[in-house]
Write a structure and sequence with these properties.
It is built from two helices and no strands. With 46 residues, the protein is mainly α. It is rod-shaped.
Length: 46
């Protein structure tokens, strides 16, 4: 993460903060989906 930030052209703090918020939201949604899928998977296997 730090390396990527270092090599990326300089962006204002506001935009980077907004982007990280968006990314974390997306990650949370993805993890929730994965967890739900895993739960249904384990149920069907039993």
């Amino acid at each position: 993460m730090r390396l990527a930030r270092r090599f990326r052209p300089l962006v204002s703090n506001k935009t980077t903060r907004a982007n990280s918020k968006k990314q974390s939201k997306r990650l949370a949604a993805n993890y929730a989906l994965l967890a739900a899928l895993a739960a249904t998977d384990s149920k069907s296997k039993k």
